[in-house]
Amino acid sequence: MDRAMFTGWLDAYEDAWETRDPEAAADLFTADAAYYETPFEAPARGRDGIRDYWSDATRYQEGVEFSYEVLATTEDAGIARWHCWFTRLTSDSAVELDGIFLVELDADGRCTEF
User: Fold this and answer.
1) HEC states along the chain?
2) C-alpha torsion 22→10→108→78, nearest 10
3) Partner residues linked to 97 by β-bridges
């Protein structure tokens, strides 16, 4: 993938998270994609699994702000550093997350493994 394709995908991911839209998030992935929240747990699988994960994960978030920096792209993967801030509604606490994405995209620009 090239940098433009990866940036376009990340922009759509940002929009899905900031609007807390599980359908938009699921549409970024292939029908058989694997979505690993962490490398230590089983992934959400396929669009339905990813949609369910996103519905649950974003349900109690408000004021989501997401940013990223592309670190590298290869023929079929992209690496980005990301940050996210939001308010957790269940505790009214501020949350700040920071991490690294490794994203594999197919030729159509949908993620196969996250």
Assistant:
1) CCHHHHHHHHHHHHHHHHCCCHHHHHCCEEEEEEECCCCCCCCEEHHHHHHHHHHHHHCCEEEEEEEEEEEEECCCEEEEEEEEEEEECCCCEEEEEEEEEEEEECCCCCEEEC
2) -130
3) 84
72, two tokens:
């590298």
Task: Give the bridge partners for 85, in sequence order.
Answer: 65, 96
| CB within 8 Å of 102: residues ≥ 6 apart | 77, 78, 79, 113, 114
- Lookup: tokens for 104: 């594999």
- Can you read off the two tokens belonging to residue 61? 């978030």
How many CB atoms sit inside 10 A of residue 103's CB? Answer: 20
- Cα-atom radius of gyration of the chain, to the nearest Å? 14
pTM for the complete prediction?
0.94
Per-residue pLDDT of 20-65, as tens digits, reads: 999 999 999 999 999 999 889 999 999 999 999 999 999 999 999 9
